Amino acid sequence: VFTEGLKKVSQRDYNKGLPKIAASFGFTKSSVSRHWIKATEKKLKELNTRDLGKLGIIAVLIDGKRFSSRGVVIAMGIGLDGRKWILGIYECSTENSAACLSLLSDLESRGLAERDLLFVVDGGSGLNKALEERYDVDKKDSRRAVRVRCFIHKWRNIEKNISDECKSEAAGLFWGIRDAQSLDGAIGCADALEAILYKDNQSALKSFREAREDLLMLHRLKIGVSLKKFFSSTNAIESLNNLAEEDLRRVKKWKGSRHFQRWIATTCL
């Protein structure tokens, strides 16, 4: 019912959607609307009150997304059993550190572990600042969580600044960091890449050095090949955001924060 509601009613395709949801929601547009509001209120409450301590979350992906005039930061968790869970949302205009800190505080109040988590991020300054403030991710001896940088985002930042002549060699070394069989091999690729960037573009070199330790973190954790590939990008949560965008694309005007949060919570869940 929820799938049909999202795919049909939200796109004004009543003729195709109505026969399938009529038994649950009724026939008139106003009846559909009233029941939909009631049902999505339950979904929002479910998202905001769920006990996260029972999910066994060991990794968290956080990303921001705009939907028309509204923005939101979404947190996705990965459990020990491999299942993905939507942990929470925080409505905000931009993905700033204050919004990310508020989201993290809410998640911890509902049972998310306060340490020993793996965060996979796209490199946004607001989220990085929040993780440093809350988990000391940049302090090797006292960090309470670790941060892995999305390889795809970082390569895009580097690629757009370097010359065409060195792109092929630089790409091979960059992805060699991720695919190396050992930490020493990854460090070797990183050192070689720095040497190339030093000659070609100092801005690209600075961008790489800023993320170098986060890119090597996968090897320091000594995880397997398949997990290493999965946690090397934020693809999982970006896929969620793209699907949500498709579901909500026909909503042109949000009637306040509650309207927006009901829809985004239902879509994400």
Q: What does the model show?
A:
The protein has helices spanning 2-7, 14-25, 29-49, 97-109, 125-135, 151-159, 164-179, 183-200, 202-220, 225-230, 235-248, 257-268, and strands at 57-67, 70-79, 84-91, 117-121, 145-149. By secondary structure, the protein is α/β, with parallel strands linked by helices. The chain has a five-stranded mixed beta sheet, sandwiched between helices.
Major beta sheet, strand line-up: 3-2-1-4-5
Mean pLDDT, rounded to whole units? Answer: 88
> Could you give the count of β-strands?
5
Count of helix runs: 12
- The class by helix and strand makeup works out as alpha/beta
Shape: elongated
What's the alpha carbon Rg, rounded to whole Å?
21 Å
| Cα-to-Cα separation, first versus last residue | 14 Å
Instruction: Estimate the helix proportion, in percent.
Output: 55-70%
For the biggest sheet, the summary is: 5 strands, mixed
Summarize this, please?
The chain is α/β, with parallel strands linked by helices.
